[in-house]
Amino acid sequence: MSIYGIRNDIDDALSAATNSLEYSVGEEEEDLEELVRELTWIKCFITTSHRTEMGVEVARVWVSAIERLVHQCLHDLHVKPTADLKKSCASLREKIQPFVVTCQCHPAP
User: Fold this and answer.
1) How far apart are CA 90 and CA 38, in angstroms?
2) Where in the chain are the domains?
3) Among 14, 18, 34, 42, which has the minimal tally of Cβ within 10 Å of its Cβ?
4) CB 62 within 8 A of CB 42
5) What sign has the CA pseudo-torsion 77, 83, 85, 89?
């Protein structure tokens, strides 16, 4: 999948998590809110990666992991505890985060 094609899947996962918020309470609601934040961060990373040549290259490296995680969210949202999905998203964000500054500091010629 391309770095731009994954955005629709991320949107679907965000919609599913947001819709689940309507029916959740307490800790589950907090976990869903965190999951939405993590997915939003990943979407922003993909959306802004095209601004620099290096950003595109970094996004290409991570697109497979992002795709797997987003599909896991779509499949497991109502099956597994949301806390597990939230932790997976947070872990991926932590791995990608160091590259974000690099991508934004070196604009494409």
Assistant:
1) 6
2) 6-105
3) 18
4) no
5) positive
The predicted model scores a pTM of 0.81
**Per residue, what are the HEC states of 16-55?**
HHHHHHCCCCHHHHHHHHHHHHHHHHHHHHHHHHHHCHHH
What is the predicted pLDDT for the residue at 1? Answer: 63
Q: How many beta carbons lie within 10 A of that of residue 107, not counting itself?
A: 11
Distances (CA, A) of 82 to 9, 37, 79, 91: 18, 13, 9, 14
